[in-house]
Amino acid sequence: MTNEELEKYPLTFAATSNAAFLGHMVVLVDVACRDLVENKPHGGFVQSVHAAMQQALSAENQGVRFPFLDVVRRFGLDVVEQAVLVLAITPELDTKLRARFQSLCTGTLTRRCTVDLALRLLYESREDQIDGQRLFRKSARLLANELICLETPPLGSSSLLDQEVGVVTRVGRLLLGHEELDETISSYCALETNRIDLDRVVLPAEQIRHVTDLVRHHKRYRQALVEFGFSPIVRYGKGIVLLFSGPPGTGKTMLARAISTLLEVTTLRVFPDRLLTANESAETILRRIFREATARDALVLVDECEPLFAERSPKVSAILSALEEFAGIVILTTNHPDIMDAALERRIIYQVDFRLPTPTDREALWEGHIPPEIEISDDVDISLLANSFEFSGGMIKNAVLFALNKALAKDQQHPILTADLLQQGAQNQTRYNIDQYTEELRPTLTLEDLVLPETEMVQIKELLNAAKSFTYVMSKWGFGRRLVTGKGIVALFDGPPGTGKTLCAEILASELNRPLYRINVPQVVSKYVGETERNLAEVFKRAKAARSMLLFDEADSLFGSRTETKSSNDRYANMEVNVLLQEIERYEGIVILTTNLYGNLDEAMKRRLQFRVSFSHPDWEQRQKIWERLLPPELPLAADINLEHLAKSFHLSGGHIKNAILRAAYAAHANGVAVGQSLLENSAFRESQALGIAIQDPEIARELEQEWERSRQLLRTESPGRNQ
Predict the structure, then answer these.
(1) What kind of architecture, by CATH, is found in domain 438-614?
(2) DSSP symbol at 154
(3) Cα–Cα distances in Å, from 496 out to 267, 414, 650, 654?
(4) In 572-669, which ranges are E strands?
(5) Please, what are the averages of pLDDT over each run of 10 residues along the chain (724 residues)?
(6) Which fold has domain 620-717?
(7) Is the dihedral of CA 104, 107, 110, 116 positive or negative?
């Protein structure tokens, strides 16, 4: 530039804001246009833009942000391309420039700078202006990256020189410092600025190091491709594509956000399902999103990317093509890596496999999700929670938030997280549905409601104590690390029908505050080969996730002795028993089996039992207690009730005593009377008859038979009484 030219262009401006910078660009364009009008030399326009950029760079070091410089750097624009972008944006900043452009474009009605005018402002010689037309080819950097657009002006021709040079709307917003996404992509992605420290991610240190090394040095990697001659070889795939795979809640999205935090960039999160249902092609929208990410220097996160990259999807090839052209960082996450198209593998530079955390990892996750600002009570044992619930990080977070809400309900000003609230929060996460194969039992009784001989009661209490200590012993005393199988508790309750085996299992579940599921044998067992094994595996998998107790009632039907293999039926039946034994041995929970036929159980099953409680018929004193416990306080009773007489006269077990009481209650309600001794005796007599149990006293038996006959005659002739 000559001294005369330098005087025309204001080379400095108050570089205190983006607005001041853009205002200076307007002045530079106005001066250049004025010179053209006056036929004066104007060769200093490009240099003056460059000088302004240098001044802005210096101001950036003082903390001032200039979005124009961000775009220049991210798309690698040279000084002439920078000047073209200035010509495209400035008429959107000052309407006076539109009149200036119109005055310079004779024969064309325009409000923007045309290609012809741009070339005259950029270059003085005709030769340079002709050569400069390359800037406006579709493959040129400004147009290929959709930073500028060319439009035919009203009444103008379609020739290149007559085309108006405009700034693409989304780029214009960026240059003005507006952060919202353009409407052409805002339905398919969102900007996220979640900040997560890398130390909150639970992964092996080596894996984290591999990932961070790749992303930290990505810009230098792209420079090295050019510097060391790799550009001709690496024609595509200059970006980094990472795949994070693993079960839900294991930290895939958290790591992506931690990387964004590490790099101090925003995250552009893509919604795959919306892309596939859009009116435009997913490839077209993705290219726009990638350009937006480049302009913002954003990391692209495609969470649960299976819909886009599923095997044999007709859109995979086009989507992969768009992915290859992006030079930034893309993180894909999936819960199902097995269904991804094989072509994607060639594009992935590094894959991180996430697994459910170990007890040690879970302890770190619990501690990480409970901020130091919240008060926790002294009874909270983080290690115990970590070992009790095989949770992912997401489930642990939800459990803590549930507990926080409960704590706020108790005290909004000073919430305290207690062991009970955290336990409730954890239990609330175990929502795995196994109703297809099981029946959930919801017991309300406690150990005090159980009537057993002293020997059996001692055994039940021992089993209960073992179940309560199970988690602690396995985690704190190291058995969980030493044992490969047999980490659970397997107990067998055997004895005659009605002696309380199932009831005892329900009471244990109630005391332990655990869900109890009774296996629905007809639903589990299938006539199709291999189906039973799959059903069993699913039951144990879901029960483990829900920390459930499993009850196999009448276990001899499933665990019967294996037979000599004489047919295919024998072979498959034996296979089912084998699978069931393996599942029980691997189950890290509590399994209760009940049977009336202990001798029919498979010997291998017997060897796996840690506890066996044999239930016997109650004696008369226990029967009296059972009668007492089963009569609700709301039940209207006559004054002549003699429970000792009932206990001594009828040798019924607990289940049959319950049936007798219900039979008497129904009869009493139907006849509008209180439950009296005669009704109870008659009901007990009918129950004994059904079971084939003889009444010890022949006189009582004869009287009851006669009384029963009279009752039947009465029921035939009398109408039902009033409700009690």
Answers:
(1) 3-Layer(aba) Sandwich (3.40)
(2) T
(3) 66, 55, 16, 11
(4) 590-595, 611-614
(5) 46 75 91 82 81 90 88 91 95 88 78 90 92 94 91 80 90 86 90 85 85 86 73 71 89 92 92 89 91 90 90 79 89 90 87 86 88 91 84 88 93 92 85 68 84 90 91 80 81 89 91 85 67 78 79 78 48 64 86 88 84 91 91 91 90 90 92 90 87 63 58 49 40
(6) Helicase, Ruva Protein; domain 3 (1.10.8)
(7) negative
